[in-house]
Design brief:
The complex is a heterodimer. Chain A is α+β, with helices and mostly antiparallel strands. Chain A contains two helices and three strands. Chains A and B meet through helix 1 of A and strand 5 of B.
Chain lengths: 85, 158
């Protein structure tokens, strides 16, 4: 069993209001050491058996076509991980 | 004039849109996202709501519905399409409109009556208005922050 992990983040130059709201909670908690929090997404695509090149090609295609919107987000990584299960 | 209204899982304002078409003197045609059939309508409305719970990104999953392949191909042939609220987000995610939508930068959900000025009466959807007429549209969204490149913004703003 293996997992393909896709990581998507909002583009660097765009304001991330959700991250900003979380940073506010850091400060209200008295944690002052961080000046920015950014929130992205991690997708886990589970595969029965070993990951093939075809799985990876499909994962990359869907990362670009569905899992991210290139206008507002970047796909940071598409990689294989061992399934924790 | 037959005007189709597509219902997606999580559409909320599809019945409102069908009623509006009827009150405007048109024939409302309810359409279903899971088909490939636009039933030969003369125009199309993608209504508001929270299609697929707004999971992933607003409108993103609905933009990959079966019926959207026909919507995209007919749009390219000139079929007038009105995207309201979530319907607009679906059109953006389908690549029919430029740009993308992000969470409002102030972090608030907006819900208000919004005054708009009609700047262009040369479109299928605005030809019944007077130029510069002020109209009121109910506005409600949490992810209404429109992002586009400079060239697209320039074109949109005319």
């Amino acid at each position: 069993m293996a997992v393909i992990v896709v990581e998507v983040m909002p583009k660097r130059e765009l304001l991330d209001p959700a991250g900003k709201a979380v940073l506010g909670a850091f400060h209200r908690t008295g944690i002052e050491g961080f000046h920015e929090v950014r929130i992205g997404k991690r997708f886990e695509l589970h595969v029965d058996g070993p990951v093939t090149e075809s799985h990876l090609a499909d994962a990359r295609k869907m990362a670009d076509d569905l899992l991210s919107n290139g206008v507002i987000e970047d796909v940071l990584d598409v990689r294989v991980e061992d399934s924790p299960a | 004039m037959r005007v189709g209204v597509v219902t997606f899982p999580g559409s909320l304002d599809d019945r409102d849109a069908l009623r509006a078409v009827r009150l405007a003197g048109g024939t409302p045609v309810p359409l279903w996202h899971g088909t490939h059939d636009l039933e030969g309508v003369d125009a199309l409305i993608l209504p508001g709501g929270f299609s697929y719970g707004d999971y992933l990104r607003c409108g993103a999953i609905a933009a990959h519905s079966p019926i959207m392949s026909e919507v995209v191909s007919e749009a390219k042939k000139g079929l007038p399409i009105l995207g309201i609220c979530n319907g607009f987000q679906i059109l953006v995610e389908a690549g029919l409109l430029p740009g993308g939508l992000v969470r409002n930068d102030h972090g608030d959900f907006i819900c208000r009556d919004q005054k708009l000025r009609v700047e262009n009466t040369e479109t299928a959807w605005t030809s019944g208005y007077d130029l510069h007429q002020e109209i009121v549209i109910p506005l409600k969204n949490g992810e209404g922050g429109f992002i586009a490149d400079d060239e697209s913004l320039k074109r949109i703003e005319g």
